[in-house]
Every structure is written in C-alpha cells, then in structure tokens.
Design brief:
By secondary structure, the chain is an alpha+beta fold. It folds into 3 domains: 2-58; 62-138, GMP Synthetase, Chain A, domain 3, CATH 3.30.300; 144-251, R3H-like domain (Ribosomal Protein S8, Chain: A, domain 1). The protein is built from 6 helices and 11 strands. A hairpin with a 3-residue loop joins strand 4 and strand 5 (91-98). The longest helix has 23 residues, at 140-162. The radius of gyration is 39 Å and the shape is elongated.
Length: 287
C-alpha cells in the first residue's frame, strides 16, 4: 500500500524532515518529488513562497508488524532488543532477540501468542489481505512443538491402556493441531476438540472403532523363553535371586538337588528322532 502526502516548508530539507515525521518512516525509504522550489521574499517583506514536496512511502505488512512490535516491546520495558524478519510466500517469520526478551514469552507462551496475534492483525490491515505473521523467541516454538508431540503420544498410550479419556487445557489452534497429529500416529487412540473460542481444548480417548488384531505367530510362549529361527528353543537364564533360593533348598534336601549328578540319555542326541517329533516307546531298529 502506498501513502502519499504533500508538505510545505521554508526549505526542501525541512519539507523532507516534516514528511518523515508524518509518515513515521526513515528518509531512505521515502520517495520525494519536488513540486515547487522555495522563493525568497523581496527585501524580506514582499512575495516569496515556501517549498512544496510530495512524499511517497510504500507501506508493507511486514514493516507495519515490525513497527508495532517495537512500540509494544518498548512499553513492556524489555530493554535492548533486536527484530529480524524473513519473508516467505504467505507471510514472514519474525525473530526477537535480547537479554531480557524471554519475558515476552509469558506463561506457556501466552504473551508470545498474544503479540503474534496482534501483529498479524496490524499486518493484515495494510492491504486487507491475509499475511501470516509468526513470532519466535530463542527457538521456543520448536521446543514447545516437541513437548506437545511427546505429550500427545503419552496420553494416547495412556488412553489405550486405561480406557479413560483425558481433557487437556485450552490451547490455540496451532497447538491443538500438533496434539491431533501426534495422536493420529498411535493406533487405537483418537482425539477431538471441544469448547468455544479461548476455552477450546483437546480430548484424547480410546478409539471405539479400533479392533486390535492378534497374530498367533507373534504370540509369546507361556514359558520363559522364545523360539529361534531354526526351531530350537532358547530358554531365558534364571535370575540370580532364583538361583540363590534354589541352592538354599538343595542344601536342605540333598537328595532332591537339581545339581546332583546322574546319567541321562539326551533325546536330541538320537539321530532318528527330531527335536519335536514323535517318540515311540520301542524304536523300530530294535524290532
């Protein structure tokens, strides 16, 4: 959006300075057109005319947002700070830096969200079109997004395990979308939003339409161990506590000791019998 004003002053330089004050911009960003040169009065009493200058200033949504944030942060007594911006296709990302700039984040980012919302309104008012403004302080947005992703997955698994729903605190649309995306990655859990305006929040609960499928091939054996790919059985080692208790019992009853030595023919050593094959009472070779 272009803003044009015409100012008059005794000299051209004074007219330019006056235009900068009225437009609220630095002289380097204003385009000037001299409409009339100043004329001095004859004998200092008769005739003469002031200088007339036309000033044109292009107002961009980003510049308006930055100027608004600079004014607000000064009133907040933040101290020294810098404002940098990077534009993209649909808007711009504004980064705030400073020694005490963390005070502008607020409780769980509420102050930062308010600044972002108001700066967006100012930017969209320039051309009456959508211009997205995103404000970040010290990578707070990235850290908050990671925290919400972990929270969403954790509560999704909790809902599946307990069968109960969890109601979260009110969040803005951006944070609610992060929670919904995290819950969608967990099978058996669902989420939706409830409430109106500032009280709108996310609810996480088990998915009533989800039916878990059981694969018998993947079921764990009731015994303490598992089967190898070659069909052999891999028994889990006994714990140290179990071995100590077993040793104490063997000391009390030596005749029942599992550590006693005796001769036993191993079934696995018989070449004609597989590990899990049928074992006849009388081998065929003995008939």
């Amino acid at each position: 959006m272009l803003r044009e004003i015409t100012v008059t002053a005794d000299t051209i330089e004074e007219a330019k300075q006056k235009a900068c004050q009225e437009l609220g911009a630095v002289i380097e960003k204003i385009r000037f057109e001299i409409l009339r040169q100043p004329e001095k009065k004859i004998l200092g009493l008769f005739g003469g005319s002031p200088a007339e200058v036309k000033a044109t200033f292009e107002v961009t949504p980003l510049e308006c947002a930055k100027e608004y944030l600079e004014t607000i942060l000064k009133y907040m007594d933040i101290g020294d700070f810098t404002i940098t911006a990077e534009e993209d296709e649909n808007g711009a990302v504004i980064t705030l830096d400073g020694e005490n700039i963390a005070y502008a984040i607020g409780h769980r980012g509420e102050t930062l969200d308010a600044l972002q919302y108001l700066a967006g309104l100012v930017a969209n008012h320039v051309d009456q079109s959508y211009y997205r403004i995103s404000i970040n302080i010290g990578n707070y947005r990235e850290k908050r997004e990671k925290t919400l992703e972990i929270l969403g997955r954790k509560l999704a698994f909790k809902a599946i395990k307990t069968g109960a729903k969890t109601v979260l605190e009110p969040m803005n649309p951006y944070e609610r979308r992060i929670i919904h995306t995290a819950v969608q990655k967990v099978r058996g859990a669902s989420s939706w939003s409830e409430g109106e305006e500032l009280q709108r929040h996310v609810v996480i609960a088990p998915d009533p339409d989800f039916k878990p499928s059981y694969n018998r091939n993947n079921r764990r054996s009731p015994r303490s161990g598992n089967f190898n790919k070659d069909g052999s059985y891999n028994r889990r080692p006994r714990s140290a506590g179990y071995q100590r208790r077993q040793y104490a019992e063997n000391e009390s009853h030596p005749q029942d000791s599992v550590f006693s030595t005796f001769e036993r023919e191993s079934i696995n050593d018989t070449p004609s019998v597989s590990l899990y094959g049928r074992i006849d009472k009388k081998p065929v070779s003995e008939e």
